[in-house]
Amino acid sequence: MEEKSKLDKIVEARMKLKARFEDQMAGTPSVSDPKPMGSGQINRHGMPKLPVGQIQTNKWPVLDLGFKPDISHQKWKLVIDGQVESPVTLTWDDFMALPQTEDTSDFHCVTTWSRMDVPWKGVRLADLAALVLPKSSATHILCYGYDKYTTNLSLEEALKEDVMLVHTADNKPLERDHGGPVRMITPQLYAWKGSKWISRIEFLSSNELGFWELRGYSNTAYPWRNDRYS
């Protein structure tokens, strides 16, 4: 009964967040661009399957800052704090006890390759947000990795249904090379917007640039606008 109550609270809070940001989410380029650039069939958001300037690959190239943290399930923790009503620190067991979502989505890297139809399993960022209840002042998040990486997203992007913190890819535990035990994915944006080896999500009342954004990469990162650099 207690678990059902906890789930009900998360669902209720997620629906309130969705209502709060629904208009903003609907107006973002990844779902409403009248002239998206790309090719192939139309995806579930109305965009061409392959964004402009991308090449489809079956391989999964490894890109990082030159340091691959080795974080065991026992040592992994996720801090969610900042402009929220109920900050939390989740252990692996806490994270796995949250509603688990399976989804299939595409992965677009700014270095011009796209990996299609990747099966994922993890927790929607919207469900994590529902757990901590963002304050009305919250407009963005800043994500941190165990490798000291950071990246920023607006809440209207972060709360989309297919933005997830995943522990499984291709039906097996997420490999260390690709950000395991847990990384964030942002199918509607270039993949650098999803932190590998994620350790913290900070809700902010204003935008704060992350690692690559400070070094000239786009703040918004829309693949169907070739939005790679600022």
UniProtKB/TrEMBL annotation:
Region (Disordered): 22-46
Protein name per its UniProtKB record: Molybdopterin-dependent oxidoreductase
Oxidoreductase molybdopterin-binding domain mapped to chain residues: 69-212
InterPro entries: OxRdtase_Mopterin-bd_dom, OxRdtase_Mopterin-bd_sf
Classification via PANTHER family: OXIDOREDUCTASE MOLYBDOPTERIN-BINDING DOMAIN-CONTAINING PROTEIN, PROTEIN-METHIONINE-SULFOXIDE REDUCTASE
Annotated signal sequence range: none
Pfam families tied to this protein: Oxidored_molyb
